[in-house]
């Protein structure tokens, strides 16, 4: 993926981590086989930390319709590759059924498993990472310093991991809880300059705690590989429509922040940002979120509306507002992944394998 703005719309690339499940809904460790026999028509498939998951990535695209089509094409291609090994893909951020994940046999992953113990062994979690093009590191840092207050609503929209090891976690995104165990995860302070950002990364490396720059797990970061801001806060979305919505709103946030680069940065304490993210992971769209305009509780519908208002000018200029409005309507009518999984569990009398299989069906819609 590369990222350069095209016209008035910045390019966007979407990376999705997907579970591989068997016909009973339980995760199966077949990533090596699936990736090893993939055809060019299956799209780009890569390993993640566990053998029970694979990752897809769209190319950098400017038109939201093209982004939506690429997300669907990647999911279809990944399923074609999985079909050869009697597996299904499921856009689930955690497995509803208990699983002991199988670490991919690569030196870096094995080193992480040895160094981080249970934190690494329990990292069968799947996220969605949105790369949005920026001109350079200076613009990227200006963006990072301004989007933090609005990342929690993105988590709430995407929340798709209510179950953990066979039980209801009482969270909409339990992936966010599991992910928060890593030492570099979560929100960041304002950096001000690229030099300060890179000094912070170098300082973390100098502690000897993390293995490499790939373990800078900030909720949003400068990509180490591409000229992009990488927004990493979201669960993998059950619906391709929700993934498209996430991409549009992430781009709107980046564009809005870049336009405000000469204005003062928001002075929000890290503890408030962390609490806002915790609340978003706890209730998703089913309860109150913290409103970034006041830092007081407000209904999720109102906070998401405030997010859209915040990025409205950018959405209008990129031609995305009508599409975003339509996708939000679909989301409010059908619910996010967490609410849909719980509804399916009720319909299936608590059979979480059936929930995983329903999710596999929904992944390809």
UniProtKB/TrEMBL annotation:
Record GO terms (molecular function): ATP binding; glutamate-cysteine ligase activity
Keywords: ATP-binding, Ligase, Nucleotide-binding
InterPro entries recorded: GCL_type2/YbdK_subfam, GCS2, Gln_synth/guanido_kin_cat_dom, YbdK
One Pfam family here: GCS2
GO biological process: modified amino acid biosynthetic process
Catalysed reaction, written as an equation: L-cysteine + L-glutamate + ATP = gamma-L-glutamyl-L-cysteine + ADP + phosphate + H(+)
EC numbers: 6.3.2.2
Domain of life: Bacteria
SUPFAM superfamilies tied to this protein: Glutamine synthetase/guanido kinase
NCBIfam families: gshA_cyan_rel (TIGR02050), PRK13517.1-1 (NF010041)
Function summary: ATP-dependent carboxylate-amine ligase which exhibits weak glutamate--cysteine ligase activity.
Similarity section: Belongs to the glutamate--cysteine ligase type 2 family. YbdK subfamily.
The protein's name: Putative glutamate--cysteine ligase 2
Organism from which the protein derives: Promicromonospora soli
Organism lineage string: Bacteria, Bacillati, Actinomycetota, Actinomycetes, Micrococcales
């Amino acid at each position: 993926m590369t990222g350069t703005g095209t016209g008035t719309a910045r390019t966007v690339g979407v990376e999705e981590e997907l579970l591989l499940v068997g016909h009973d809904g339980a995760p199966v460790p077949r990533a090596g086989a699936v990736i090893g026999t993939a055809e060019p028509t299956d799209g780009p498939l890569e390993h993640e930390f566990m053998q029970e998951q694979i990752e897809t990535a769209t190319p950098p695209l400017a038109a939201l319709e093209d982004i939506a089509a690429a997300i669907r094409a990647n999911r279809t291609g990944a399923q074609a590759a999985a079909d050869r090994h009697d597996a299904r893909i499921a856009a689930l951020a955690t497995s509803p059924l208990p699983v002991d994940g199988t670490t991919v046999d690569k030196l870096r992953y094995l080193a992480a498993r040895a160094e981080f113990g249970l934190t690494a062994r329990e990292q069968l979690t799947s996220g969605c990472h949105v790369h949005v093009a920026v001109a350079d590191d200076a613009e990227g840092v200006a963006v990072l310093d301004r989007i933090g207050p609005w990342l929690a609503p993105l988590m709430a929209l995407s929340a798709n991991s209510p179950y953990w090891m066979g039980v209801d976690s009482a969270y909409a995104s339990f992936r966010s809880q599991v992910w928060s165990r890593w030492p570099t995860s979560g929100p960041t302070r304002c950096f001000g300059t690229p030099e300060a950002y890179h000094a912070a990364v170098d300082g973390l490396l100098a502690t000897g705690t993390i293995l490499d720059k790939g373990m800078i797990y900030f909720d949003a970061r400068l990509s180490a590989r591409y000229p992009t801001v990488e927004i990493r806060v979201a669960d993998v979305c059950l619906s391709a429509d929700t993934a498209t919505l996430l991409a549009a709103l992430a781009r709107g946030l980046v564009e809005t922040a870049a336009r405000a680069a000469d204005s003062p940065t928001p002075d929000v304490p890290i503890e408030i940002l962390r609490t806002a993210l915790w609340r978003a992971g706890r209730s998703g769209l089913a309860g109150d979120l913290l409103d970034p305009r006041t830092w007081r509780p407000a209904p999720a519908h109102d906070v998401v509306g405030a997010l859209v208002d915040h990025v409205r000018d950018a959405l209008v200029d990129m031609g995305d507002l009508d599409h975003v409005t339509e996708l939000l309507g679909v989301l409010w009518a059908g619910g996010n992944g967490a609410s849909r999984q719980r509804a399916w569990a009720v319909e299936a009398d608590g059979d979480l394998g059936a929930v995983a299989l329903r999710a596999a069906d929904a992944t390809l819609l």
